[in-house]
Amino acid sequence: MLDPTLYGLLSQIDRDEIVLPAMQRPFVWKNERISRLIDSLLRGFPIGAVMLWRTRTVQRYRRISRDIDTGVATKYVFETSSRNDNRYLVLDGQQRLTSLYVCFRGSYDRRKLHLDVLSGDGTDKDPGTEYYDCRFLSSGEAEALNGEANGARVRFVPVSSLVNISPQKAAITANKIGTELGLNEPEMVRMADTYIRCASILGDHKSLQVITVDEDPSDNTPIEEVLEIFVRINSGGLVLLKSDLLMSLLDLKWNDIQPELQDLVREVNENRPYEFTRDDVLKSLLLAEGAETRFDRLVSDRNQVELLAENLPLHIDNVRRGWQLLGCILLDDCKISSERFFRGGHNALLPFVLFLACNPELSHSERRKLVLGIYVALMSGIFGGAEARMGVFARKTVACAYKFPLRELCELTRRHYGITSLDDLLRRHLDLALNIAHGGITLDRNPEELQRDHIFSKARLQEKGYEHEQINHYANFHFLRATDNLNKSDRPPHEWFRSPGKAPTYSDQDLAERLLTWDELEPGNFERMLDARGRRIREKAEEILGFSETEITSLFAKHAEERKVEQEDGQGRSKLSPLDSLSFYRPSSNR
């Protein structure tokens, strides 16, 4: 029988009687949120609810984490319950339960939760702030803070020791310690109150509501309904949660899916400045199988999910290779070194992963086509927020190609967005245009610190009557640090570049790296700068993309066969592209 007190819940976690089902995602709460949870407990506030499923069927599960280390990639070990195990699986409340265990019996980044037992005075405090000062500290850090450091009297004590004091002895213990510390009466009262509150926490059964499914042995909710409960109670972000549901359904037959995908994600991100996710990898596996990538559609067809569970493992090695090759191309050839440049997420990259998974041996010309294709996909946004379009292109065009269908991608982009030139592409994604202008930017751990700023002041240009397209042309932007931007205001560029606040004066070399000259920054030279720097940026793009501006324009151009089809199809109905018959398509028998 479940013990609903905090002591009972923690003890059952210790005995692995309360565990996490395979569908649960990793622990994500930060130490600030955990500390706020304990502040709520000490103030007697309700801290939400947990929902547990008492299962008597075979299920995949993992232990609740005891010690959280944010600096180490977590690798979970999954186990399979036997019938009549009577374990409780956490459907909702994983973050709370893990946080409580970490606070009272575990650690966070190798530090124990400490509480300043002299805190808790809510006088003159906003109720929305924290009354109790809780921090994850090492014993050395706590010792250094204790006493009257910096003129403030504090006393940090491990919470794990406070909650194990008998409630009957809490006040006596507090008074004894307070006397030894020479506390005054208000401090003695406050510390005694804190000790009593801590000593009573584990016996509490009201702050955390515990809901159980199938507590009665006669109940036996089908797994499909339990999974739907999981989706509905975690209602924020339905598509994301559908991926959890799909993972859980796949796990019923592919028992190693969780650790295998964890390993794969870790491998593709290793030594790379990217943050590819489990869902990205799962979608690439689905594309390799020729399946739909929209999770909400997949979970409604359980027969298809069973087939996927059998077939997806066959693609692991090829997909791993595809992601690793893509990482090399992004970093070495595309000069893209930050998540900042992946507008609309990673969906735009999936067709390229699929192609590389099927075609690991790349010629120089194919590698060039991939570089341009990646920039076309990212800059145009052709697949951003359009997963169905991405899926169709990947399954029907890329999967059967032994040469990357770059022309088809360019034609798709032209039809949807009217892009016909390199200049059109650069106008659509200013960050990537500037990444090209700078020859690839290596960003620090805070890429948002780098800001995009007008070279010639927007306000001054508006006063002079320049059009929006000219003012916000990619050639009138450059990257600079946020701190430098604070000092710029609307100063003329010929002044600011010579005296940029606290930053060093720009040298001739600095300007050359930004594809600028001093003369172009002089008053009255805006249009001249726009034309000259725009041309230099396009030349830099030719260098990185491996295609001339004329060749890129040709790729976006309508070809004779397509124009003929359009003339014959006066109704504007969709027709198969003439490229379907070109030699880069594999015969269906070879698929």
Automatic annotation (TrEMBL):
Listed Pfam families: GmrSD_N (PF03235)
Record field: compositional bias (Basic and acidic residues): 562-572
Q: Which residues form the GmrSD restriction endonucleases N-terminal domain?
A: 8-250
* Top-level division of the source organism's lineage: Bacteria
Residue ranges, annotated region (Disordered): 562-591
Query: Per its record, how is this protein called by name?
Result: GmrSD restriction endonucleases N-terminal domain-containing protein
Q: What organism does the record attribute this protein to?
A: Thioalkalivibrio nitratireducens (strain DSM 14787 / UNIQEM 213 / ALEN2)
